[in-house]
Specification:
By secondary structure, the protein is an alpha+beta fold. It is about 30% helix and about 20% strand.
Length: about 100
């Protein structure tokens, strides 16, 4: 029987880290450039993390370190979207939810 793991397919062959980012939800929902959809596309889970236990005014995403450092951080800065929290974690330490 083949061993299956819970790592998303986008990270299976890569040895890079993961970045969890917390953003103010209002900045994304009322943005005319559809940044919410763009961030969801880049996100490992193809959308925001379920943060039912966290603050209601924020939204959490998980990206690969490569995408965050080369594309998304610059995109948010160019649209003046503040980052509440940025947490870098190693791929092996990341807990993936089903």
């Amino acid at each position: 029987m083949q061993n299956t793991n819970n790592i998303p397919s986008g990270l299976r062959d890569r040895q890079e880290g993961v970045v969890e980012v917390k953003l103010w939800e209002a900045f994304l929902l009322y943005n005319r450039h559809n940044l919410y959809q763009t961030l969801s596309t880049y996100a490992i889970e193809n959308g925001p993390l379920d943060n039912s236990n966290a603050e209601q005014a924020t939204i959490d995403f998980r990206f690969t370190s490569y995408d965050w450092n080369n594309t998304l951080k610059k995109l948010l800065n160019s649209h003046n979207i503040p980052v509440v929290k940025e947490k870098h974690i190693k791929k092996q330490e990341a807990i993936f939810h089903e």
